[in-house]
Amino acid sequence: MSLRKDQSLDELARIGNVAQFVSYSPGGTLPLQQYCRVAGHEPNHSFDSVRGGLISLIERSPEGTINLRSFTPDSPRSRDFHYGLANVDEAQSLLERMSAEGLFVIANETVDISDGGVSGVIQGGVAEFAPDDTPRCVEKEGTASMPSDLARAVIRIVFGFEPETIAADRGRLEFSIHPKPRGWRRTHTLMWEYEGTESAPARPAMKWPNRFSQHIGDKTFGLLVAHAIGLPVPRTTCFARRVAPFSFGQDTASREVWTRTCPREQEPGRYTTVKGWTDPFKLLAIEDPQGTAIPAVLCQAAVPATYSGAAITDANGQVVIEGTAGEGDHFMLGRKVPEKIPTSISADVQGLYEHAKAALGPVRFEWVHDGSRAWIVQLHKGATDSAASTIVPGDAHRWEVFKVSRGLEALRGFLDQLPGDVGVRIEGEIGLTSHIADLLRKARRPARIDNSALAGR
Hints:
5-stranded antiparallel β-sheet; 12 helices; alpha+beta; single chain
């Protein structure tokens, strides 16, 4: 026999933190209190009146408001539901009316799903979660999905505390994470529902962009994943719009820093990256005044660069490593062509690739080598369709030539104005790993390097 919804909350509260609540059964003239978990009171404390219980709940709710959810024992699905009540008289009147209709009622603290935290589910060794939503986000597109141990590591870094996912991997747990302490235990993790049955191991659909990577920025998410799986990432501090600043990574041999804008999704070379400290909030105000495109700015320790570049998985499933001596910003923007990289440097980058591929599958990343070791400075998941002189495979009705010397921003405008049936021939030398190649792949139109133009020079 299944437990009534408030009975289930009582059982769940024995093992973890739940949203503060007081439940009532219909009792003729007055509702009868059943269960409760209210901060500062013993479990199932008996209040002297309905009003007393509601006042205590409202006073201890971080938002100062409560919800009323009604149901019948044979159907736990909500009947009348009232959200965000701050007035005790109104809440009491609604509760007594629903009780008189024979309904059970749970009064609980209002939980702000848009407080910068996340909600989701852990089951079978997989965690899926998203911001600005309830645990039912797992039924929607764009939910972050990753091994549960990796998810715990990422949450610990971003929010600064260990998520309390008691026994989650031996069943199915619906949870939410909050920057502000809440619930009857006053911690940062709320448990909403738990099924203790064993779950078969599952495989996460780990990919980004997803709703969480968009929440903290695409670069931030990729670097967090790289750090969490044990790859060397320079010490990085994230200044985000909706999450308190947090840091991760390792110290480098330099005291200099790079300031990197961090858009919701990868926008190759579009937004500011500068060497040196720049006010991140001023930069956000200038580059994204509407607050919709750039959720964060990164301050990243510089790596004294002997060589820099990028690596991708090509259309044949092989790693392509390209780079240049010194810092790699001009190479990535297509202003410098790939150079021959010393064998020892390539071997170190290859080692990073194999490490990342073992954990994530095919990847692409930007790297910097300081003469002793290679570092990851951007990471993305997935292979490319590029191979040799073909950046994006496919045929086109006709082809237009773009000269590399015009630059990345000119290419962005060129692609925006190009009809859909037109392919691009690139005149000039670029790397398959450069931002120019990235932008062409993102545009998803046939693109090739025009070798005939190069041969005719």
